[in-house]
Amino acid sequence: MSDVFIKLQSAAHAGAYGAGSRAEPTPAQIRAGNYAKGSFSMYGLRITIETPMFQPRRGKQDGKPWSITCMAHYGYVNGTKGADGDAVDVFVGPAPESRNVYVINQNAKGGAFDEHKVMLGFIDQDQARTAYLNSYEKGWAGLGSVAACTINQFKHWLKHGDLSQPLSPDLPNIPKDEALSMTDVFARWGADNLPVGQTVGALLYELRRADIDGLMFDSATMGDITQYLGDSGEMLDAMVIEYKQFERKAGQLLKVMQNSGGEVLPVGVEVSKPFKSKGTTQVAMLFGMSDGQSISVFFHNPDSTPNKLTPADELISWKWVQNKKDITAVVAPESGQDINPRIVARRIMALIQKNSAKFIKANEGKAARTAALDEQKALVKAKTGELTNLEAQILDLTARLEQKKAAPVAPVAAPVPVSVSSIILDDYADVAALGMATVLSVGSENVYFDKDGKQYMTKLLNTDDYEARVGEVVDLSGVVDPSAAPDVDESPAILQGPAGPVTVAKTKYVTTGEWGVSWASTHLATAASKAEGVAIAERVIASGADNIADMRAAAEPEVVPELKTETLNEVARRLVPEEFVSDIDPDGFTAIAADGYGIRLRPTAGGRMLSAYILKPGVSGQESMGSSTLENGIESAVGVALSTALTFIEKWRAEKAPGAGSEPVGEPAAEEDAGIIEAEGRENTVKTAKGTKVVTGFKVIEASKLIISHETDGTVNPEYPPEIQPRDRARTTSQAWVQKTARNLDPDSLGRTQRADSGAPIVGADRVVESGNGRAMAIREAYRIGQADEYREWLLENAEYFSVDPAKINRMKAPVLIRVRKTDVNRVEFAVESNQDDKLAMTATEKARSDAKRLDSAMLAKLADGDLNSAANRDFVAAFLQSLGDAEAAQYLTTDGKPTSGLISRLQAALFAGAYADDRLLEMTADQAKPEIANIVSALNSAAPDFMRAKEQDRIGGEQVGEQVTDAVELSLNQEAVNAIIGATNVLRQAKEAGMGLDEFLRQGDMFGGTDPAVAAMALFISANNRSAKRMGTAFKAMAQFVESENVRKQTAGLFGDEPASFTDIVSAANRKLEQEFGEGVFAIDQTDMFSPQPAAVSEPRQEAPSEEDALQEAKSYLDNIIGGTTDLGRPNDVLKELERIYAAYGEDQLSGLFVDASNAFRDYALKATAGAF
């Protein structure tokens, strides 16, 4: 079932006449068209459905009401105006994937044209005509001529045709499909050879958007030109060339294009021989580009023929084609006026240059795909030959079979005569006493045996069991009276075994009986045949493979499992708990069942004997579970009988055992789907927002067996891996969403979709929900509050569609449809991608944590420095943008392709979350306009990759030496360093908020009893160096690098190795690096009494004069803040002094352009501030 069909059905029944509608519109509403309708999109057309299929359509004609049942969905195409002044009417059939369109020219009573009725979604014209006629009364004479066209031709007619007139069946004014490349995009060019009012990129985007056939990415050849590219287009005369000058003019135009090009240049030009198209003589120039693109220019002469074209004849240009896309109206829209070819050449080269990257990407691997497709075509041809040969063999075998049936039948020997003096056996014990006896004959009710020359007859046995055994010796010693079995409870049996309580479930014959085997055989045979022959190409296309290896893998035949038919003995054995089966007693429970009660449960090869042994009183084979035959009835009754017997045994043992009744019977063991699970239904390929394809398979599972991230009240599930839940489901908003969804569960939205962030939850083989935790929580909650009945019914109704067992759904307490992931993926990345567009938006913290998982080592290697806006970090920003996927990344680019401030903020948050995992650092970015804060942020950024690598080493080290470390270790080395830096930045913020100097704040301590000495030392260092991002970054990176190397060393150290490094060691490593870079002891982190209970009083840290590099950066930040409006300009004299200082130092050199912008911004502020005084 296609997604378009699902959308069509949903739209059809969303309106007032839909299946679920409660209120029918009034006559006045019908006349005005003012009632609820559903809409959907089909091939780019927005269609509104007024009346669903099989619903009555009503109206009035000549004052009399009429009503007719629609045999297709009936509505109209939005944005159109038909012959009657209303939108064009349309019938939509059951095959919306069909690209065939049939336009019916409907006639009025007198035979004149009335209006069009469009038939979409029909396989052929006969089907469309039948649906149309059946939607009107009998004898309807309104059917006029029918015009058949493609969807592209239909859309062209809607836009450009005369809808007030009949559409002729020969489509005289509608181009062929391949010729429908004439663009609807128009441009007006300025004197600078750029489009007016838009960029070249925007113009090219419009061309690509209108290019549904991908002609912009398919380079043209001379064969394409003479075959069909010259078939259509408007005659926009632009250049006039004599035929004898054609070669020379082509060379001149080539040079003009080369002079106008950039990175992509024309490499040659080819001139065609004169050819005829649309009755007109034409000649074309074909320019090839260095990246594989092409430009074709078509010239025509309406007064000559190709053979009679003379050198003096003039040729007039009329069409320009980029690759296979007509761009005439784009580059030469002047409607017939002469145009300088140099101007057109420049316009074309601008489009060529802009289209280059997309063109190259679209054509990557094209040759390989073409070769693979040719290979598959050859394979299809070979398989078709094999299929023809097999069909011939089938015909031959069929003929032989018919010949054999027609042959005379050999006489059948008469049955052994039965003596009239047979001994009648009316007691089961007498029958069993015969032991080994020969079956003489079988009547409609009696079975006759021979024993030692005497004949016996009995009505106690099932005649079906012995019809095929006439003449054989059978063992009757096992025959027992079924009524001898005691009457016991029929509830599912709980048998207490060596490993604990075991539940023996009832069996359903649909999976083991003849009907079930037949059903499975049919479906497996269908799968087997489809895996062969002509279906190979279909599988390759469906796989979406883009390289030869994947295509070959997709072409491999499907492995069809061997069909195994269970015997009755195997069915019975399968129902026995494993702990009761042994080599000595393979039936496991024979001795237990017979103990003191004479019950025999020994399965035998004879199914009818099995029936006699275990069927409880009052239940015959024919009555068991509604089966129509005795054989199926016995198979289906096996589970009931064993369950009954084992229930009785357990009760008897409980009563006879010492202290019976003192201990409760254990709960049933939940064995089904309790461990590793596999998909059991049809496959469903989904895509994440980034475009990652993942194959899943449907399965039904008990809700309690799913491992969901949270309980409905927000409680975290300790069994759920926290790294794959990017959302905080403990939030109040999340809980409210789950409650609301549970009360209004929409089953149709919880099934098959092509998106990973919607539909049935996606689960790993370990039952952990990877995508759709919220949906899984809502379904589980719906069962709890009694709102899941509709969902359960929907599961049963669609069980065949999902290829899941309805019997399994019926026996479950809270069945949930899930998709089990089959494709191997990085589940953390998959969880992040799958939740990029879920139903509940992430908070900033959630998004930062989720984004941090994108920052892999390859991406972090591109981070050049701490300023994310710098040109050096352009590759790093681009890599992060690419990780988001095209759909999400689009919102983070300006019209000229530059990253927005929102992207930088998001990337900044991801860096902090990945390296430092502290939400408080995000608050600092709000004050980043201040130089000291900007320097701290820059320093933290530059050290972030090192801290993230160190964190990874922490996890690796923890796994390898986890058994060797003591429980007393509270923090890893890396977290100690991170905590100190984070704490230091917070101390600075707190001191500022308290209006104190840092030394005073540290002396007083905070309200909880003082500041950690390590934090205090870091705070003093940051305070003293907040004018130098370079010095802080050097220290932070040195700390992280020491942690990383220490963790590597720690992995190889034993329990009795060196003492682990302390935070003092980390700071010492940072100080060594600072001394190496800036001189001994000048900027060191003070370690005096670092781990004493209270920090010693400290003097006010000395503010060092900024280095030349830092001073330049500080001046640049000041000017940027003035331009951005974030600087306080309330004291203009101070601002002027600072501007004068900056100008004297850098205004005529490094910051000249920035200084002009800043001074203009200050001037504008001053004018506004003083405007009221004049």
Give a quick summary of the entry.
The chain is 41% helix and 13% strand. It is α+β, with helices and mostly antiparallel strands.
Percentage of residues in DSSP E strands = 5-15%
- Helix % is 40-55%
Structural class: alpha+beta
**What integer is the average pLDDT?**
70
Spatial ordering of strands, largest sheet = 1-2-5-6-8-7-9
Distance between the termini: 75 Å
How many structural domains are formed by the residues? 9
Radius of gyration: 42 Å
**Which blocks of ≥5 consecutive residues have pLDDT under 50?**
226-237, 412-416, 485-535, 558-649, 656-670, 955-977, 1089-1103
Our count of helices gives: 39
Structure description:
This protein is of the alpha+beta class. The chain has 9 domains: 3-174, no CATH class; 203-364, no CATH class; 365-398 and 513-564, no CATH class; 423-479, no CATH class; 491-502 and 566-662, no CATH class; 683-840, no CATH class; 843-915, no CATH class; 917-1102, no CATH class; and more. The protein is 41% helix and 13% strand. The protein has 39 helices and 28 strands. The strands form 6 sheets. A 7-stranded mixed beta sheet has the order 1-2-5-6-8-7-9, with helices on both faces. Strands 10, 11, 12, 13, 14, 15 and 16 form a 7-stranded antiparallel beta sheet that branches. A hairpin with a 4-residue loop joins strand 13 (280-289) and strand 14 (294-301). Helix 31 runs parallel beside helix 35 (1029-1052), helix 37 (1108-1124) runs parallel beside helix 39 and helix 38 (1132-1147) runs antiparallel to helix 39. The protein is extended, with a radius of gyration of 42 Å. The chain starts with a helix and ends with a helix.
